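Human: You know discrete backbone vocabularies at least as well as I do. Show me how you would write down a chain together with its backbone fold. No explanation is needed for now; the record alone will do.

Assistant:
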Amino acid sequence: VSLVQSGGGLVQAGGSLRLSCATSGFTFSSSAIAWARQAPGKGLEWVSGIYSNGSSDYPDSMKGRFTISRDNAKNTVYLQMNSLKPEDTAIYYCAIPSTIEAMSSPLEYDYWGQGTQVTVSS
């Protein structure tokens, strides 16, 4: 199982970024994928998740600014982040939850991407 992330970088507050997570080694089309992040000095925080049927879920703090999507033909998941804030600065990870019920629980993820830094300047 492999999850390879791309995207991220430095952006000013109010800007946008798109993260990608290219996967292989498992049946992508039938798998749920999550995004989580870890800010400096803080624990892991669930950011979003997308299910095999294409439905998505977000914590209330991310709704309206972040959009997760998937391309089953490319085995890739995307995270579009708009209206970024300095508090969104973190390392972002894509991951495979151990179960659908674990979507919002990063400590229960089985496989992880390498992480990508997102820095939002004020």
Residues 32 and 51 are 4 Å apart (CA to CA).
